[in-house]
């Protein structure tokens, strides 16, 4: 475990370890839970589809395409254990493929009207 104070800024880094130099990593979705084995019942969304859901969530510049850096302010779940577990989904894409999901960034889906 990593111990922090409430509202302390946390900085994380995800690195891709591959011999292929033409890959990039992208943080797609991160959710937090008070239970390490249940990320469905009680969750808090930090980011979804590359879009920040939490106002403190931020992406930071990275020195290389195979490294993603991000951060958020520490929090806890009300009336629950003081532990917070994080699960992030990362995407790996070709660096030069500008049509890839990694290059699209935040993708917010717009609901369409169901009129005929």
Automatic annotation (TrEMBL):
Gene3D superfamilies: Zona pellucida, ZP-C domain (2.60.40.4100)
PROSITE patterns noted in UniProt: ZP_2 (PS51034)
Pfam families: Zona_pellucida
Alphabetized UniProt keyword annotations: Disulfide bond, Signal
Domain ZP per the UniProt entry, residue ranges: 1-109
InterPro entries named in the record: ZP-C (IPR055355), ZP-C_dom (IPR042235), ZP_dom (IPR001507)
Segment forming the signal sequence: none
Protein name: DMBT1 protein
Organism of origin: Thryothorus ludovicianus (Carolina wren)
């Amino acid at each position: 475990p990593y111990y922090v104070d409430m509202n302390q800024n946390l900085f994380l880094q995800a690195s891709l370890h591959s011999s292929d130099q033409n890959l990039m990593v992208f943080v797609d979705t991160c959710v937090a839970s008070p239970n390490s084995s249940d990320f469905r019942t009680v969750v808090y969304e930090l980011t979804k589809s590359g879009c920040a859901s939490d106002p403190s969530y931020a992406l930071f510049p990275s020195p290389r395409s195979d490294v993603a850096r991000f951060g958020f302010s520490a929090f806890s779940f009300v009336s629950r254990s003081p532990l917070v577990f994080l699960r992030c989904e990362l995407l790996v894409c070709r660096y030069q493929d500008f049509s890839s999901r990694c290059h699209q960034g935040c993708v917010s889906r717009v609901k369409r009207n169901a009129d005929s």
